[in-house]
Amino acid sequence: MSRAWDRFRQSGSMFGFSTGRGRSGGDVELLGRGSSTHTVRLGRVQPQAPTHRTIYCNDRDSNLPVRFKGNSISTTKYNVLTFLPKGLFEQFRRVANLYFLMISILSTTPISPVHPITNVVPLSLVLFVSLVKEAFEDWKRLLNDRVINNTPVDVLQNEKWESIPWRKLQVGDIIKVRQDGFFPADLLFLASTNPDGICYIETSNLDGETNLKIRKALERTWDYLLPEKAAEFKGEIECEQPNNSLYTFTGNLLIQNQTLPLSPNQLLLRGCSLRNTEYIVGSVIFTGHETKVMMNAMNVPSKRSTLERKLDKLILTLFGVLFFMCVIGAIGSGIFINVNETYLALNGRVEQQFNPNNRFVVAILTMFTLLTLYSTIIPISLYVSIEMIKFIQSTQFINKDLHMYHIETDTPALARTSNLNEELGQVEYIFSDKTGTLTRNLMEFFKCSIDGEMYGTGVTEIERGAATRDGLNIAETKPSSTAIHEKGFNFDDPKIMRGAWRNEHNPSACKEFFRCLAICHTVLPEGDLSPEKIIYQAASPDEAALVTAAKNFGFFFYRRTPTMIMVRESHIEKMGKIQDISYEILNVLEFNSTRKRQSVICRYPNGRLVLYCKGADTVIYERLVDGNHNIKRVTREHLEQFGSSGLRTLCLAYKELSNELYGSWNEKFIQAKSSLRDREKKLDEVAELIENELILIGCTAIEDKLQEGVPSCIETLSRAGIKIWMLTGDKMETAINIAYACNLINNSMKQFTISSETNAIRAIEDRGDQVEIARYVRDSVKHDLERCLQEAERSQKDIPRTKMALIIDGKCLMFALESNLRGKLLRLSLDCNSVVCCRVSPLQKAQVTSLVKKGAKKITLSIGDGANDVSMIQAAHVGVGISGLEGMQAVMASDFSIAQFCFLSDLLLVHGRWAYLRLCKVITYFFYKNLTFTLTQFWFTFQTGFSGQRFYDDWFQSLFNVIFTALPVIILGLFDKDVSASLSKRYPELYLEGIKNMFFKWRVVGVWAFFSVYQSLIFYYFTSAASTNGLNSSGKIFGLWDVSTMAFTCVVVTANVRLLMECNSVTRWHYVSVGGSILSWFVFIFIYSGIMTTFDRQENIYFVIYVLMSTLYFYLTLLLVPIVALLGDFTYKGLQRWFSPYDFQIVQEIHRHEQDYSRRNELLEVTNHLTPDEARSYAISQLPRERSKHTGFAFDSPGYESFFASQHGIFAPHKAWDVARRASTRTNITNS
Required co-factor (predicted)? Predict the structure, then answer.
């Protein structure tokens, strides 16, 4: 069953997302291998019907008139009837396929000079392969659907549980779900075998999180557990219409004249599983495609790479060339047709196509004739070849790269789409989250401030880095005897450890501080209830760290029920004594990214009512009671100091409540909770009524260390010409220090800071006039942007150019993104090498990404690990998800996923760069060979009076792309390698060639086109001219089909050998593919010309190859024509390499004598039978040790001597033709 769900999850049909650390927003694109593309819209509820839904529980007859949808689901794209029409429609949405369909239709008309098979066969092969792929993927979806739909579930019928398949489930049914079972539909939770009506669920199929979540049934329904009792349940549910919002639900349960409000705490979603509970009983609310998780499965357009869009322009250019060639032929035909040319016999009745009395009709019909004749100029197999190459690159190279495999978490890299491989080789801007992306997301309680007193003696990595920058050295300090270091807690201060806080001047404040940590949370305890063995299941690592801190301070939270929290507290007065205290939890005001705080209202055993609140300092300070200015000031200073140390901070506060105040407020809370409309908004408004006049207790400081290898990775990417922006919700001080620690910012940079945390802005904020605050901050941001722009322009004139960095907070960014200031922000940002945006919301992250993507037209990449990064990931050209501790939200929205930020250097500089280089060569080579082949036919047209006579046999034209030149170009796209992976990272400046698009410019296309024209002239005129004096063995001169077969043989040989010249590295697969393609032509022509059929077109080629090979003409032509044709390419490549080398060619020459054992052949097979270390060792032992032989190094020149010598610190005088001087103006590689 679990495996079935895993397969179903991979199909992209059951995903959802959790808010993690209060993260939300954005559309989440889901791409699973072999599945359709899906999306999840976070925080956006789909439009609902104006009325609510009424469900009669345990009463199928009453629900029958409504005709609720069944519980059967289908994730297939097609069925038996729609497969062909819908599948063909999808294929013909591609312009190239539509073009060849039109050509195939034209080839069936009398004006076509070629047999229909010439165009129908290639088109049919392409369509067949594509449709088989679609059918196979859809068949897998169908099998998964059948497994899911036929899973059994217990349904209440006639006072007993009956097992039926999921597909037969109906709305209103009462069902039982056992432990570890999956919920078959969206259920109203009625009863549980656990005490107090609670159950534990795992939502990994929705958001990837494995931490358990608690759900609580209404107390009124706890008794409906046994079938006899459950049969008596006849409630009526009024709830919202089906929608796709995973984390909201509004409804009421009407039972025995009582109206009870329902919330997400009573909702069990399809796809979740039951844990640590024997079984639960629930009532079906939403079924099948109306369940929330299924409504999140929506088709969206997939991303297209920049190279693919440029390819469209090249195809359009080829259309233009084709049209131009046809127009020339049409005009020539209209001029050539002349009744005076008696040998044409045009005096009698002739076809309209050759009627000299109507030259316009002749020209038009000839144009259509030539359109079919020259159709091969558009490479029909190009798209199929590119898709195949990209797919293998993703599945075999990226997914199985050991250098992007994380042993600790057993996580390999994963390409969730193969559409964007080459886009990885052209990224210029990276937008990165901080927590969990640059840092480890392993939170440790490190320091705190209580009642104005700072505690904690540790020194963070950031503090050490800052001291090093200032030339100071921080000595290592030995931990005290009271220090404790465990997961989530790394704190040392004898003043408050092991009960010493009782001796402080503020023990009551310490007590409130620790109780707030132990009570104000949503953590679930698991396992042994001893302090040493207990496991805390938390929604975020921060919360787990805070509860762990409370435990180590003597306030041990060990049990939770829906209404109670049990804490084992150290005795307040007596050292060493403990007491178990139960706190009644009356209300929980949950944390989200808008509120930025969480509150709990609890009742002490003595009846005391207290509200505990924790949240961001900006939010808490706005809600503090007047007075205590000294503590506020000191705590703010401590917050800034913690931020400067790179620590994450939270403020803690509390408020005493009277019974009267709480009673009146709770009535409003219940009323808001029962509302069917705008429930979340009303709950937030009610929370504002009580979350005020808080008393500040102190603040916490949690350390999140940098991931391994982040600083060096960022430095490498910067050298590659990539600009990195950090977008985080943390404080400015924390963000700046993390940026320093990871080499994003350094002291040599000129820094521009735009902050709302200035004394002037604080003074305005103290007045409380929101309109005045907004106006003043907007004007301040405008002034700062103009000032920074002026300074940036002056700095750009410096020699050498000063590097710059911009730091801006979320409040200022909100105004800077307005339409009148957006342009100034963009200009300033693009001038900077690094940008740090702090205190930003998920929406602002996406807005900043879109600003650079659309405003600057640069290729962008976003990388993050949580739900608040989803919108940013989708806004960029390429989205990369970190599979970290925050669930799989970012991964499921991403195009590529990796386990560590440092793997980004391999993904971009190695795989991305190689993919870009290879695909550029594949596309330009396709362009070259098809243009060359078509132009030989074009030159022949001039000697046939523009009549449309074909030069090649129909089968030659049909199989040229799909057989005789198909495999070598795929091998080129898979195995070509200019430099090794290690050299790609050693010389990251090589990546600049991709950013500048050096290999797919119009200049490059123009060079290929020039040599296509040159070679086509050689093929046609050399073979035809050489044949004029040639005689076969019977003494006859060579005819048209002899010459065309000879020319086609030269084209096939030359095109394949030309590909070898383009390869930077040649393996046995290159030899096999090129040799096999040439051999396939000879095998085909030997068989084809040896067969005689009744078809007239077959007679043309009968015995041609045997006649040709019996003459010296064949062998001389086969030897000399390809040599002469390739001489121009050979000369050009030699001169280009000598006098204007690319950067990678210089690196090749530097390391030409080094052996290259290709590490990129290291593949990883992740199995369940081996430990990660064993799997790695086994994979390495199985690696093929094939040596790659670099080619193209024959163009040695004395001019390289000084370049090589400088690499080894040896002086050599420059020569007049020294290419090093030319290269030095184009690259800084030699300095690396």
Answer: Mg(2+)
Domain count, the chain: 4
**845 assigned ligand-binding residue:** yes
Neighbours of 800 (CB within 10 A): 5
Query: Does a structural domain hold residue 70?
Result: no
> Measuring CA to CA, which residue among 430, 338, 521, 469 is closest to residue 725?
430
**434 annotated ligand-binding residue:** yes
Q: Are residues 492 and 619 in the same domain?
A: yes
Contact 535, 527 (CB under 8 A): yes
Could you confirm whether 433 is annotated as catalytic?
yes
Structural domain span for residue 550:
440-454+483-661+691-704
Percentage of the residues of the chain whose pLDDT score is greater than 70: 82
1159 marked as part of a ligand binding site: no
pTM, 2 dp: 0.72
Neighbours of 536 (CB within 10 A): 21
Residue 1130: inside a domain: yes
pLDDT range class, residue 969, cuts 50, 70, 90: very high
Active-site entry in 138, 433, 831, 978: 433
Q: What string of DSSP letters covers 1121-1179?
A: HHHHHHHHHHHHHHHHHHHS--HHHHHHHHTTTS--B-GGG------SSS-HHHHHHHH
Q: How far apart are CA 1144 and CA 983, in angstroms?
A: 10
Residues 1191/1132, Cβ–Cβ less than 8 Å: no
Tokens 């350094």 locate to: 746
Whole-angstrom Cα distance, residue 829 to residue 785? 10
**Does residue 868 have a known ligand-binding role?**
yes
C-alpha–C-alpha distance, residues 776 and 770, integer Å? 10
Whether 597 and 591 have beta carbons less than 8 Å apart is answered as yes
Within a domain: 360: no
Cα 1121-1125-1130 angle, rounded to 5 deg? 130
DSSP assignment string, 34-54: TS-EEEEETT-PPP--SS-EE
In this structure, are residues 902 and 880 in contact, taking their beta carbons and an 8 Å threshold? no
1103: left (phi over 0), alpha (psi -120 to 50) or beta: left
